[in-house]
Amino acid sequence: MAEAFTSWKSAGGNNADHIGGNGYEFSYTDENGERKNALQVDYGSLFCKKEETGYDAFIPTMPESNDILITHGHADHMGGLAHLMNLKRAEFEEKRAKGENLTVHCTAFAEKLIKNSLLSTGIRKEEFPNFHVFKPDEAFEVNGFKVEPFSVSHSIPDAVGFVIESPDGTRMMTTGDFKTAKVPLGQGFDDEKVAALASKGIDYLFIDSTSSTGKGETIGESEVKKGLRDILRESENGPVISGVISSSCHRLHTVATALAEEALEKGTEPRTMILDGASLINARRAMNACGYKLEDIIREQTGVEMKIVAANSKTAQRTPPENRFYICTGTQGEDASLLKIAEGRNKNISLAEMRETSGKGKDLPIYVYDLQSCIPGSEETHKALEEKFQAQGCVTYFPSRYKPNKYTIHASGHASSGDVAKICKIVSAASPRRTTVVPIHGDPAQRRNVMKIAQETGLSACIIPNMAEMRAFKKYATWESGGKTEEWIGVNDANNDFRKPYFKYDRLEMNVETKERKKIGYYKYKHAPRKPKTEKAQTVSMMPTNLAARRKMHGR
User: Fold this and answer.
1) What percent of the chain is helix, strand and coil (3-state, nearest 5)?
2) pLDDT, tens digit, for every residue of 338-347?
3) Positive or negative CA dihedral for 276, 245, 187, 81?
4) For 495-544, what is each residue's pLDDT tens digit?
5) How far apart are CA 69 and CA 294, in angstroms?
6) What is the DSSP string of 458-480?
7) Would the pLDDT of 89 be above 80?
8) Residue 549 backbone dihedrals phi, psi, to 5 degrees
């Protein structure tokens, strides 16, 4: 009779090159060698430049388990779900006929973002997976695994990590994306909670590596607010156009707080926050639905009444240009709101309109601030975006990832070296079991740095690349060093139209050394019937539903 073991494998996330496409499989094999239990943590997408790769994105190989735990609502952790529903449409139709289905386990905020992602990718509501919505700190069981979620700090509300206990008692903690700084929305990282979970024993600790090479602990939004107050003082005489990643909800709160504090200091009405970009609008809708309505929060915290409207609203158009604070999508120069403004293609926001409406013409200063630093791989498009605004006479400030910045207007959502050391020390001090650290979600250099930090705190650590399996037996563990290739699924929208996508999926093999990908096959799948006109991705209406309130807003 063989020895039972718990296994772990990274299908994506521990990549040989770019960051993203996270997906981690946990399974249990009994004494008879029968693989009985499995679950997946995250199933994300890895974005790429189509002009270079021929693909819109890459996703990991399809998970074996019909239960997927989601740490948070960012696309690199849940963006593969819509494509999974496409690829397995026929299989899931058969399962639903038997009363079975894929089940996604997530927080309420992540659920809202996932459902919108499904709709926008062409997945019909009747094709949705089942959702088990849990609260942080609410334990549950999946396929014989005991799961204990815990809150972590990230750039999005309600991000969680998990402690997963397999049927043989092996306990594994995975942090998800995290840092230890306080967050303005939701619970955030709690030292005592992590210590309490560790006190029950942690055998393996899987740690986010994305920013592990940064010094100290990652700053919180309170530091970003100081930087925003600085740029507000320098832009009092003109409109501000800023860029954010759409799901960076804490950044929206930080902007609103800075604007409210500015108004209190000056004794004036606050500038109007104007949002542009469908994904940003949908993120705000999710915030409102989950109790994070910014107007209410800012009113309670500061007493200031904020106006937060969509860029296509009449309120936005009637607001004097000097009182407008735009928040837009497209921080990296992709074809989104910011780039469209710079190129004169944005139907809601026009530099010429602002100059004409103000009566100052070209004498009106327009300030453009990117509230997100450049993501590795986007250097060219990021720089080109700033230059396009500069060519039109705008005052710009795009923070650098690689050198000191004048203003602190961005904070990473990921753990720096100090955060990594902190969680290692917490677990090491509390766990009665020997803990081995496995770095995840990072390139090779970032994961090596996590291993180094873990070893310096007295923990053992190992590097496990994509496709390599770790097996945890009762008294020892084994793991593979990894092969020469990784397997991915290439996602290609043949229509090149996100409004009417037609997806094709290729099997790809990537050479770990050269980073070259080659097609080794393709996936046939059952396409969805034509989508009814009434079913489309939900967006936020910024307008009151009450007719009298509308008339009052419009001054009628």
Assistant:
1) 30, 25, 45
2) 999 999 999 9
3) positive
4) 988 778 899 999 999 999 899 999 999 999 999 876 555 544 444 433 34
5) 28
6) T-EE----TT-EEEE-SS-EEE-
7) yes
8) -65, -35
Cα–Cα distance, 40 to 66 (Å, whole number): 8
Highest mean pLDDT among 14-28, 34-48, 291-305: 291-305
Closest CA to 515 of 485, 477, 545: 485
Give residue 445's identity as a one-letter amino acid code. A
Distances (CA, A) of 257 to 177, 219, 273: 25, 17, 11
Q: How far apart are the first and last CA of the chain?
A: 82
Structural domains in the chain? Answer: 5-216+413-510 (3.60.15.10), 221-397 (3.40.50.10710)
Asked if 192 and 175 touch (Cβ cutoff 8 Å), the reply is: no
Residue 310: helix, strand or coil by DSSP?
strand
Q: Tell me how crowded residue 302 is: count the other CB atoms within 10 A of its CB.
A: 17
219-243 as b/e: b if 16+ CB within 10 A: bbbebbbebbbebbeebeebbbbbb
Retrieve residue 184's tokens: 């303005």
What is the C-alpha to C-alpha distance for residues 322 and 95, in angstroms, rounded to an integer?
A: 57
Kindly give, in sequence order, each residue whose CB lies less than 8 Å from that of residue 260, ignoring residues fewer than 6 positions away. Answer: 270, 298, 301, 302, 304, 306
The pair of three-digit structure tokens given for residue 14, joined into one six-digit string: 């521990």
